[in-house]
Amino acid sequence: MAKNAKANPFLMWVLGWAGPAWINLVKWTTKTEVIGRENFDQVMNSEEGFIVAFWHSRILMMVPMRQLYKGKRFWFMISEHRDGDMIARAVERFDISFARGSTMNQRKKDKKKGGADALRTLLKALKEGEGVGLTPDGPRGPRQRCQAGVAQLARLSGAKVYPVGYASKRAKILDSWDRFHMPLPFTKGCYVFGEGICVTGNTPEEMEASRLEIEAALNHVTKIADETMGHDPVMPAEHRATRQDR
């Protein structure tokens, strides 16, 4: 199917009903704990904008987490790819605003316009003290490898990046590129909040160091979540060379 193909209208309708229903079912039947509560409280009590970063495989239960930020507008970066249409339809009922585009992979020339528009939207939101959720390995991976966009957004906005992991005890790990973690109802779950990461460097070397710091922190909190819920941690995809590596 072409990359910019439109999603099936019937499928979109099903997701618009079934997605929120499933998320709410899991939410209301799951006993959830928060590890790193002090970091969570720091986000909740801050009047400054903040970035919450999580891997693409854990996006489903990051949606109801939005409801904890009462009084703050919350944004998700959603790709312009067909998959982004499906995600947007599934979570639009949870009072989440969307910036469509991708600031994640600067090598994709055809994404520049959408990425620039999304970047401006998110920078404005962060300056106004709002929250932004990003999947640094989305929309197509490699799995659990942080792309440059989240560090760039943090540097330009001055907002801290808070890595968040999630896992539930009863879950189906899908055979997808990201090993999607599909939580099941009537179980236990946990969020793991890491410390906020400041990105202040300007040189390519400093930005790469920040990117790697965010990646390591995200893998760490996700590993804790998996192990707490009795799962073997999902391993990051094999490293792919980027221009910075060459």
TrEMBL record:
Residues 69-143 form the DUF374 domain. It holds the Pfam family DUF374. InterPro entries: DUF374 (IPR007172). This is Lysophospholipid acyltransferase family protein. One of its GO terms (molecular function) is acyltransferase activity. It comes from Aquisalinus luteolus. Keywords: Acyltransferase, Transferase.
